[in-house]
Amino acid sequence: MALFAQGLLPASFRGVPFAVFASEAMAGRRVALHQYPGRDEPWAEDMGREARRFRFRGFIADGDVAFAGGPIAFQRATLLAACEKAGPGLLIHPTLGALTVSLVRSAIGEDLGAGSFSTVDLEFVESGKRQFPSLLTSGRGPFTAANLVKAALAIDVVRAVAVVSRAGGTRRQATVTAATWSAAVGELGGDATALHRLAARLPGDHGRFAAGGNAGFTATRASIYDRTATIDDLVVAASTARTAIGTATAAFGTALASADLANMQGVAPAAAALIAALAAACADPADAIRLLLRLLAFVPGRPEAATPLGQAIDRMLRRATAAELVLAIGRYQPTSGDDAGAMIARCGDVLDALATAAADADEDDSYRAMRAARGAIVEDLRARAATMARLRDFVLTAALPSLALAQRLYRDSDRADQLVTQIEPVHPLFMPARFQALAA
What is the rounded distance in angstroms from the CA atom of residue 111 to the CA atom of residue 190? Predict the structure, then answer.
């Protein structure tokens, strides 16, 4: 069975994959039935939508690389641990995409073939918003696409490492490549947590040099940060973010050092957590995109990274970075229709290159996930750009102050800061006579 065959997605719960024979989605309305003496017909009172339930019948198999399987006893233990963990979890449904659900009941069956095969019966109930694999324009499309990239890389890295380890790949090749990448992430984490970057989190107007992604081209754009934040809070936030990156780096190294090369099932989630820690340290989505693109351009200089096993680890980390890039783009606010188009061109080429690399490595699941991710960000950014003004060229006879220019162009002097950010003059009192700005 090939993943993504006929549009189906690989099923998993909390990152633990399983094959599916059949699934059911149960939905309806909550009805309170009222019956009265002497009245033959009851009254059915509609109380709202019933909670959706999802039931799966499937299996896990010993050493099945197609489903990232290892020893059957390990798969049973991993699935049981995922089922017993408290709180809602992420379910990848073969047809409905990423769902936040709570487990109602589970059963793992064994028979005479228990040494190599177990049946699985799982029932879930929805818990929160669903995320479909369709390309939506509210940020859900990028969210689902990023999760699919993570699911595909987790499966492909198990396959790739299992193959190359049999061909003579060593643990040192994997650990040295991972350490080189971890050092690069740590360096970028220092960039992300520099106080002049984090100053964007402070409330108020900090001008075009320190406002980060909060200096939108509309004066009414709200900050997502706490309005009571102070510089002391930023020092604490920077320290916390650097500690989180260090903790994720250590966890990634430990997972790689202790993993069985024939079944590196726990390594991909640790790699994804490391890149997610870097993205979480960034002050705004624009800064996250800048650093993640720098990380994708990183080339390990160690000879171990050029080996087949080192290349498999390199591909895994690049795809984990691409997943965070897609999430950052989903949160990014374009400043104009032209800015959205430039972001599509800038990041689309990167995702195309990663998709091509996945295809060259015969990792079809990651190829399809990367192509879907590219389509998600294109659809999302185009839909948001459709409601934004375009840039146009302005030519004036003389230099004007930003306040007078905003009043003249837009009949709104409050948009003076927008013009200063967009045009970047030497001084706001002397705006250039020729510039590009929003048409309306």
Answer: 54
